[in-house]
Amino acid sequence: MKKHMIISIALLAFGSTSALAEGMGHNSGMHHMLKQADANHDGKTTKAEFMAASRQQAEKRFAHMDANGDGVLDEKDHQAHFDKMDANHDGSISRDEFTAFHKQMYKQHHNQRGSHD
User: Fold this and answer.
1) What integer pLDDT is reported at residue 6 of this predicted model?
2) Could you tell me which residues come within 8 angstroms of residue 41 by beta carbon, excluding any fewer than 6 positions away?
3) Over the Cα atoms of the chain, what is R_g?
4) Whole-prediction pTM value?
5) Dihedral in degrees, nearest 10, Cα atoms 38, 117, 56, 18
């Protein structure tokens, strides 16, 4: 149960910290999100475009969380993500492991995002 809570918090923290970091500096994260959602490139984002883009992001996030790719989020997925964070495999996640993991995920996110711009 404790591992479930830790991994859930970590995944939420990654999503929140990357969103906050992207939003720094004149709403650049929001601008990027709306620009990406504007499918017909008319400079406006309709509700339909926004919902489609949101669904794509949710699909990507689900795929990331579904570590074994079986279409179900379960204990195996939680354990796989916990194991990735637990760099020294001692059964717990230190502050340093937590920070290092999230820095790595943030860096990967920006490298992937940069390749699509």
Assistant:
1) 54
2) none
3) 16
4) 0.58
5) -110
